[in-house]
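Repro:
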Amino acid sequence: MIDVLQKAVERQRLRDQFQRDAMEALREAEATGLGHDLADVEAYFAQMAEFRAGRAPRPAPLEPKPLAR
């Protein structure tokens, strides 16, 4: 029972941290006007999956671009 509660507390802590990180990223994007297009992020993660599977070279890091307003 204690193990179940500890895991639930840890999941909640991770959810809370994710939300804080997301809000901070949004504030930074709004302040700088820079960010990443969803299509670019999806392509990057697909390339990283291929790299981690040993089927492709490491993709170049994503560079932030001006956000559409």
